Amino acid sequence: VIVSLSPDARPSTCVALLAAAAAAGLESRPLPDGRGGDVLGVNSALPTNALQRPGVAAVQTTHKPYRLASREHRAPSVVRVGEVRIGAGRPVLMAGPCVVEERESLIEAARAVKSAGANMLRGGAYKPRTSPYAFRGLGEVGLGHLAAAREATGLPVVTEVLGPEQVDLVAAYADMFPIGARNMANFPLLRRVGKTDRPLLVKRGFSVTVDERLMSAEYVLASGNPNVVLCERGIRSFDATTRFTLDLSAVPLAKELTRLPVIEDPSPGTGKRSLVTRMALAGLGAGADGLIVEVHPTLTGPSATPARPSRRRNWRRSTAAGGPFTPR
Amino acid sequence: VIVSLSPDARPSTCVALLAAAAAAGLESRPLPDGRGGDVLGVNSALPTNALQRPGVAAVQTTHKPYRLASREHRAPSVVRVGEVRIGAGRPVLMAGPCVVEERESLIEAARAVKSAGANMLRGGAYKPRTSPYAFRGLGEVGLGHLAAAREATGLPVVTEVLGPEQVDLVAAYADMFPIGARNMANFPLLRRVGKTDRPLLVKRGFSVTVDERLMSAEYVLASGNPNVVLCERGIRSFDATTRFTLDLSAVPLAKELTRLPVIEDPSPGTGKRSLVTRMALAGLGAGADGLIVEVHPTLTGPSATPARPSRRRNWRRSTAAGGPFTPR
Amino acid sequence: VIVSLSPDARPSTCVALLAAAAAAGLESRPLPDGRGGDVLGVNSALPTNALQRPGVAAVQTTHKPYRLASREHRAPSVVRVGEVRIGAGRPVLMAGPCVVEERESLIEAARAVKSAGANMLRGGAYKPRTSPYAFRGLGEVGLGHLAAAREATGLPVVTEVLGPEQVDLVAAYADMFPIGARNMANFPLLRRVGKTDRPLLVKRGFSVTVDERLMSAEYVLASGNPNVVLCERGIRSFDATTRFTLDLSAVPLAKELTRLPVIEDPSPGTGKRSLVTRMALAGLGAGADGLIVEVHPTLTGPSATPARPSRRRNWRRSTAAGGPFTPR
Amino acid sequence: VIVSLSPDARPSTCVALLAAAAAAGLESRPLPDGRGGDVLGVNSALPTNALQRPGVAAVQTTHKPYRLASREHRAPSVVRVGEVRIGAGRPVLMAGPCVVEERESLIEAARAVKSAGANMLRGGAYKPRTSPYAFRGLGEVGLGHLAAAREATGLPVVTEVLGPEQVDLVAAYADMFPIGARNMANFPLLRRVGKTDRPLLVKRGFSVTVDERLMSAEYVLASGNPNVVLCERGIRSFDATTRFTLDLSAVPLAKELTRLPVIEDPSPGTGKRSLVTRMALAGLGAGADGLIVEVHPTLTGPSATPARPSRRRNWRRSTAAGGPFTPR
Q1: I need a surface site. Which of A110, A234, B214, D320 has the fewest CB within 10 A?
Q2: Distance (Å, rounded) from C-alpha C146 to C-alpha C106?
Q3: Are strands A38-42 and A2-5 parallel, antiparallel or unpaired?
Q4: Which ranges of A93-164 would DSSP assign to H, the alpha helix?
């Protein structure tokens, strides 16, 4: 917020504003306005009208409402997750099952995606479910399986956190938190993960505009955590032929507007296995800094003996649970 | 969930299923299937595949995924908030400011809406805000103002709760909780308010289908709280001429599909004061059990002396903060 | 278009502009601008830059792009179809089958809707069909059936015209043309019906904004036909639970922005018979000047002898072909 | 339509069905059904119920409603426009201005896009305009400019036709017709261009599903013209940050479902010049058979002498008229 003082403002006005900001725990500082006037910058969560008083000529918000995410005057950021660098030019690949099930099959999946070139392992221990009667994941047991798979492969682990009360527990296991599409406006959660140092993958909500999504990232940044990666995963449109509509134009647009890396999640966006490879290539063409994809073991041979080398061929991209699925 | 046993299932299969259900804390009971077979009903939060074992022919979910909200075999429910009965035939009117500001003006607003026929007072003490820099409400101070306005007028108070960690505090002041559009998929919150006995107003998310919304209500019902009222408040469409698109067809549809009362919130749905009265009438035509509207004092006269009787005429419907506004 | 002349413009500039407008077949006239300047109003289909020349200070379009539809400075219009007056305060009811099939059943339908209070008969002889293999209506034979039903009942006939080449033929039978949702941007058709004196029902396209729809009406008005009635019939949203999403807020909004009557078509908007009555009431609550509804004979009794008086009870509201249908 | 005869159907039933089809001007033929039954295939525009009679067991439509567009049992098609082959493996580039203005600048644009690698020239002589007061293109004069540019460069010309009454005129100049997004459901136009041998570019309407769009292509194919290319150009979603939302998943999906080539039009889909290159690469990643892009001369140097070699650098991708535009 920029507070412009009127030419006849008394010094006490400025002092009172600084005191009001300090009392609210906010940072503020006097700024020259280039025209000889006095201006006060307040990094403000005060209601704008709390700053209006005699001697104040105007209270303005800065151009971009997402001040910290904005590319204005700042270099693009690179987010590190262990030795992985997201936004450093080389696309990053995160892969793994939608839901963590058994420990052995998860470790096998982790080895398979690593040998296929993945840099990070994804998998859900806590799943948001539309139905209160659906399986909601293995919880802490699943987190333990993920840690075991990390130990076996060295891949950092990406696993979702659903609420502020889970953050400490999940942080004990996860290297990176995805904030799911349904939680983009869960502001207590955004503020809570913003207090950690864990890198975050901020997915776009089903019906959230480009600007609103940047404001969700801004919540995290404003809480002190600079390690934010955006993730495009599909929005809702009138056409349900694909599970969601992948809005890939939002990838180059986010890179133009912000300094944050952007990755693409083609699995929910298409909901159809046969489209995933093409849309992953499309995302890289659009300039994405990486991909996060779902894989699932499909045992197609007559024998299901685990871990035979030939089985690895059978790891295939699957799609989000519940979406349409075209077996080959 | 309906578990169909195969004709050659052993009695021990049935016993094991009943034990599995009991171990998971679930209610289950044998059902005749009308064709001489044995069927087991489980009110299940078990993953469906946990019920598949030798002797089980099929595991099916019942028709409506929203079992408890469904109108099948059940009478429409009436939700009581103090002496107010929602769904009892006579439309209920909830009114008040979007955000609670000062105590005196809130009490004045409460008196004005009561004299205009309102049955309940609405007002936000905690506001979800797209920007981390925006005013987020007065918090507990605002809750205190609401309690004072209730004391002054006798109107029960409706005020939003944003996260599970706030439920105990807000419950100490509020008579009814709205669950906001952004929190419809905040499942930890839905389960937490489901453990209270406080009536709930479950708003519809911006891009949530009719069925998904009913599943959010089902989360609350399945957690033990039967006092759910649905609220239609506008969805996002391609046309932003009005702030949201009021999907009024969802009102008679919800009344056809469920036993829950449904009210309408025309303020965010239109975002334009001049349309609110017409759309409130439209909602009643569509069969809504009540309305929740925003009001704000507009001082139009030459004098702004508070609490003059003639000022009450000046209380007018306003629209949600940030929406377009046509002053008369 | 308002052309502002600069203070140093020569008289020849004004003459040249008037000549350019006349050469393009346009009406223009000098206007005083209230500030002593010279201003020229051109009812222009010229490209704006064709008016920019030395001595011209500015070329501005007027506030509302829909000049003739706008309510600015003009009274609401009343559209007459025979003795029926649309927009005169009393809601008008148009009813009939979606598609004209047999002559006798159409006449029976016309009698049934008349006895139920309808003022006009609707029915399709030419149907727009998504599939090239679908039945596209009886064509001129169907028009003849409609004329016979009008003769039998006195009800004016509303029937769709699909292209400019059909206008003369359909005009020989129809009292009012609906321009269907798929033809809102069929500008050759809009201009062609604008050259007739037949009243028009301009439906809103599936994904057409409020403003774009008013521009479609403006095409007709600018072509010389003032008898335009708007019709709200549902837009596409992400939620396909109902066949379309009825955007009823657009009804009072159109009445605020324009001088045109607005009616509602609840049948495609809901696609579900059980919702039609409620949504018709909602439309009237929203301020609609009338309704257009689909009816279809449902023979529920053991006998299908035509025209038994008791059968009239069986004429019921149906929904558009292909929509979901809940039989009672 | 597949008509299955019941085992006890009399030969006269089959004869009557063949006669009914012939009377309606339809092609039909007996088909073996593989199970020893008698089946009749009718390429039918008859209402399905017109085929139901004694002896008919079932009337079924074939799996895909888009029979001719479907990939079932058929190889992908290659569409030729002069020497250009669309769908033959090498991406095709169509480029040119949105609207044809002056002859010289159009020829210059054609030379510039040819030297930049384009295979075809696009440009609009008839423009669909939301406003009746907007410039609607130069009409036949513009068609003449396009022909001159073709003569100067050898590039085939792609130019839109707006209605069935324009087809003969435009066909005298154009090598390929785009059917615009607003005309996808202009069935008289689709049938009329289906009677020509001119290749067609069928764009997707703003709110048209993947299946509906294929049915529009089917209209053309069923009218006898096999030379159909699909074009993805953006749909409407709730987010207007970009002008339309490019639904690139529809590209690989259309190639999976149909035998038709698919190209991408990134200009209206983004509405922002800085995003066009990235989204063109994304489209090729998604598997598009080509691109159609808008270019416009931006005269940045002090001199505007035409056709200086150095000016060619200044030809840049622009976006659709009316969209946002970011000058460099």
Answers
A1: D320
A2: 7
A3: antiparallel
A4: 103-115, 140-153
**What's the rounded Cα separation, in Å, for the pair D89 and D70?**
19
- Amino acid letter at B63? H
**CA B169 to chain centroid:** 19
Cβ distance of A287 and D278 shorter than 8 Å: yes
Measure the CA–CA gap between B2 and B25, rounded to whole angstroms: 17
ipTM of the shown complex? 0.75
Question: How close B206 comes to chain D (CA, Å)?
Answer: 10
**CA–CA separation, B282 vs B263, rounded Å?**
12
| Spacing of C-alpha B229 from chain mean position | 5
Please, which residues have CB within 8 angstroms of residue C117's CB and are 6 or more apart in sequence?
Answer: C93
**Cβ C149 vs Cβ C110: under 8 Å:** yes
- The answer to whether the CB atoms of A283 and D285 lie below 8 A apart is yes
A164 touches chain B (CB under 8 A): yes
- pLDDT, one tens digit for every residue, chain B (328 residues): 556 666 666 666 666 766 766 666 565 555 443 333 444 555 445 555 566 666 666 665 545 677 788 876 578 999 999 999 999 999 999 999 999 999 999 999 999 999 999 999 999 999 888 888 878 889 999 999 999 999 999 999 999 999 998 999 999 999 999 999 989 889 999 999 999 999 999 999 888 898 898 999 999 998 999 999 999 999 998 888 888 999 999 999 999 999 999 999 999 888 888 999 999 999 999 999 999 999 976 533 333 333 323 333 334 444 333 333 222 2
Torsion of CA B1, B2, B8, B14, to 10 degrees: 60
Chains that touch A (3 or more CB pairs under 8 A): B, C, D
What is the C-alpha separation between A141 and A103, in angstroms, rounded?
A: 9
Q: Which residues of D touch C51 (CB under 8 A)?
A: none
Q: Does C237 contact A at CB distance below 8 Å?
A: yes
Residue A231 CA to residue A79 CA, distance in Å, equals: 13
Give the DSSP per-residue string, D116-129.
TT-SEEE-BSS---
Chain C partners within 8 Å of D49 (Cβ):
none
The model carries a pTM of 0.77
What is the rounded CA–CA span in Å between residue A301 and residue A311?
8
Q: Which residues contact C200 (CB under 8 A, 6 or more apart)?
A: C176, C177, C178, C179, C193, C220, C225, C227, C228, C229
Residue whose token pair is 């890179």: A255
Q: Are A240 and C236 in contact (CB < 8 Å)? A: no
Cβ distance B73 to B36 under 8 Å? no
Q: What are the pLDDT digits (tens) for C200-225?
A: 999 998 888 988 989 999 999 989 99
Q: Distance (Å, rounded) from C-alpha D297 to C-alpha D96?
A: 10
Contact D236 B238 (CB under 8 A): yes
Enumerate the residues of chain B whose CB falls inside 8 A of the CB of residue D236: 238
B215: nearest CA in chain A?
A131
- Residue A266, Cβ neighbours under 10 Å: how many? 30
CB atoms within 10 A of CB D154: 12
Give residue-wise pLDDT tens across range D123-158.
Answer: 999 988 888 887 888 999 999 999 999 999 999 999
CA-to-CA dists, residue D250 to A192, A247, B106, C123, D246, angstroms: 38, 12, 53, 36, 9
Strands (E), A61-156: 79-81, 84-86, 92-96, 120-122
Q: What angle do CA A269, A78, A219 make, to 5 degrees?
A: 70
Chain B residue numbers with beta carbons less than 8 Å from the beta carbon of A1 are 133
Strand partners, B177: B200
Alpha-carbon distance of C135 to C148, in angstroms, equals: 22
CB C161 within 8 A of CB C170: yes
Q: Does B304 contact D at CB distance below 8 Å?
A: no
Running DSSP on this structure, what letter comes out for residue C190? H
